[in-house]
Amino acid sequence: MGELILCHHSIAANPYYIDELSLNVYSLEELSYYIFRNVYLLNDAFMSVDLCRWIGSETGEKDLEKQLLDLLSENAPLHIFVSNILTSCGYLTNKEIKDTLEIIKSFENKSDAECQKLRGDRLMEKMKIVDAIYEYENLLETSENLTEQLKGDVYHNLGTAYAKLFFYKEAAECYEKAYQAGHKRVSLRSMLFCRLLGEDEENFHKAVSRYMIPEDVAKSLMKETGDALGNPQANKFDDYIDHLRADYSDQDAYLAQISSIMDQWKQDYNRLC
What we know:
By secondary structure, the chain is mainly α. It folds into three domains: 16-107, no CATH class; 112-229, Tetratricopeptide repeat domain (Serine Threonine Protein Phosphatase 5, Tetratricopeptide repeat, Alpha Horseshoe), CATH 1.25.40; 232-272. It is 71% helix and 2% strand. It has 14 helices and two strands; from the N terminus they run E-E-H-H-H-H-H-H-H-H-H-H-H-H-H-H. Strands 1-2 form a two-stranded antiparallel sheet. A hairpin with a 4-residue loop joins strand 1 (16-18) and strand 2 (23-25). The longest helix is centred in the C-terminal third of the chain and has 22 residues, at 251-272. It is flat.
């Protein structure tokens, strides 16, 4: 799983397989880790007889197995089911358990579409941007009964996800669909900004005409974009590069420093992806 997990409970001879991540877990500690790190992927399907039986037979926690099976028979909510697992294990702190259960409760009593959007929103908050894109796109492709307002909100957030990855063309298209569905001015403004950031002035002016944007508003948007692109932080980086060139008279040493900076940018971008 990428981290060392100290297990106080029995290690299973046969792992429990989790379809969503194609993952095997071998202990209650690993199961708790999975729940905590992937709480946005949990749904009612997580509460299964197979999981209860595995806990009883493979980890030796017969009492916990009985508790969980009783909860299943009572149609208990997901957060109660998960609470029993997390509190019996002792792997997470009380605060971590509380935060995890609060997130799960926020999904309950909502429609499947609302839950899926909320999962995408949570993934965005955690900067798991590509995961959020998959969640939003899957929702738009598979849900037939989305209200126009919810569809607009999903398209808007999808546009934001693409914009964070500098896919301004795709972002602009999503924002435009968001505006057409939800009629929110923020979506329209975001679409116009993305056209400018993507250096697509032709489609920017077409959109200004199509949506009857006043000339003074269009000029204001262009000025805001220009100011953002020429902000002091950008100039400060230019100054930094100039100083770097002066500090490293040797060409190879200078290029090595530039390469190091670019490698860090690549790592940051790959982390978002």
